[in-house]
Amino acid sequence: MLSQIFILSSKGDRLIHKDFRGETCGTGTDLADVFYRGITSLPGDQPPVFMTHEGRHFVHVRHGGLYFVATTTPEASPFTLVEFLNRLVTLLRDFCGPLSEKNVGLNFALVYELLDEMLDYGYIQTTSPEVLRNFVHTEPVATKPFSLLDLGSVGLFGAETQQSKVAPSSAASRPVLPPRGEQGARNEVFLDVVERLTVVIAANGSPMKVDVQGEIRLKCYLPSCGEMRIGLTEEFCVGKSELRGYGTAVRVDECAFHSSVKLDEFESGRVLKVTPSQGEVTLMQYQLADDVPSPLPFRLFPTVDQDPTGRLRLYLKLRCDLPPKGQALNVRLQLPVPKGVSSLAQELSSPEQTAELQPGTKSIRWDIPRCQGGSQLSALFKLEVPGLSRASLLELGPANLAFELPAQTCSGLRVRFLRLRGPAGPPQRWVRYLTHSDSYVLRL
Fold first, then answer.
1. Phi/psi of residue 214, each to 5°?
2. Measured between alpha carbons, how far is 287 from 384 in angstroms, rounded to an integer?
3. Three-state DSSP state, 297
């Protein structure tokens, strides 16, 4: 049972607020403001999902820089509420398009109509897109119409490419229903293999922890669709003892499937069968720990000393171990430095790189827009630290790396084919791959 639902921007601005039970009326308490002040006062970048204030429980998830928050009483199931908020996020993407402060503001009437149909006096009625589509009549307002003419300059997940047969990341972000003023809908199917990489590398360069969390997402824009068959790598193995095929095994420790996926051909041919409806669904989730077949994408070689003037010199050499044709995008290295640092001088290996000292977190942020496989980048930082001592050096590191690897998977999982039949005609089919860092820690 929910009392309130509100959607806040990253700055705490209230975009959507729905009070189902009126339990806080007359109390003078602004729960949205209470939540935002509480969440921003906590240390760290990942605040807890659950919070409590005067007997009222807050449950929240964050997507697209927005906070999706529900308030409830102690007897409600917290995991049910987390699942409901995640489904709400998926439904808003299906009905409204990409999640952003501007898009939610443009489609506020549609969001309120969805909440009215999904909940009655705080009780969840349905989260099925098929059911909701019959009762929701507000048309979505698109921020920017998508055009296939843009494919020549924008590639997979925003990367530039020389080929025009690659879909950009924004292609699958538009609403499932055609926006106001758009003539008809495009018959398209997007199948994304997305992996999150969690790594801890020791100071000597040896991996201490390597974990891959992956999922196969399907987003369908077909008004009606017959059975879809998705063929995975024939050498795909679940567990450490299973062996299949004659090539190099693509192994995961465990996997789970959506309830709509039929697995009668999975054991024999590694084929998933599903009859999709309009919208987004996660067909399969899998996990792989420690035994990752591909080399880790980045290695860091730091050198720390003092120059003749007493400044702390930090030389970083970042090596990209991807294949020569691969690349990493939006690479960001965050390195904590001694708290007494007062100034920073820098020398970077290429002009497109940027670096700055962040006084609030006492860390260096090194941004690299693009890093080609097999390349090596370097940066020299000179830090002015008054009263530098051996104890101050203990505050240096570890480094945290964030990046995206388009068209690549660390597990080696690939899609062999995507076949479907139905009355909607031959659709355009897109298969995309993306690996991004969830937590990539390099100890100095």
1. -125, 160
2. 44
3. coil
The token pair that represents 352 in the structure block = 């497109």
Rg (CA), the chain: 24
- Report angle CA 433, 439, 159 to the nearest 5 degrees: 35
Per DSSP, the chain holds a count of helices (H) and strands (E) of 7, 25
C-alpha to C-alpha distance for 93 and 71, rounded to whole angstroms: 22
The structure's pTM equals: 0.75
Tokens of 338: 């001694």
- Alpha-carbon torsion, ordered 138, 139, 140, 146, to 10 deg: 170
Quick one: which of 41, 44, 15 has its CA closest to 400?
A: 44
* Mean pLDDT, residues 40-62 taken together: 75
What percent of the chain clears pLDDT 70, i.e. is strictly above it? 85
Q: In the structure, what pLDDT confidence band is assigned to residue 56 with cuts at 50, 70 and 90?
A: confident
Summarize the confidence of residues 43-71 as an average pLDDT: 79
Instruction: Kindly give the pairing relationship between strand 56-63 and strand 50-53.
Output: antiparallel
**And the tokens for 437?**
């860092």
Number of CB atoms found within 10 A of residue 304's CB: 13
Element (H, E) at 285: strand 279-289
Sheet holding 207-220, edge to edge: 254-257, 279-289, 207-220, 188-201, 428-442, 399-406, 327-336, 363-372, 354-358
User: Which of the four pLDDT bands, split at 50, 70 and 90, describes residue 290?
Assistant: confident
pLDDT of residue 306: 85
pLDDT at 173: 64
Is pLDDT above 50 for 163?
no
Answer yes or no: is pLDDT of 159 > 50: no
SS3 letters across 150-172: HHHCCCHHHCCCCCCCCCCHHHH
DSSP string across 220-270: E--SS---EEEEE-TTEEESSS---SSS--EEESEEEE-TT-B-TTHHHH-
The one-letter amino acid at 322: L
Mean pLDDT of 295-316: 90
Which candidate, 17, 45, 44, places its Cα nearest to that of 30?
A: 17
Pairing assessment for the beta strands 188-201 and 207-220 based on DSSP bridges = antiparallel
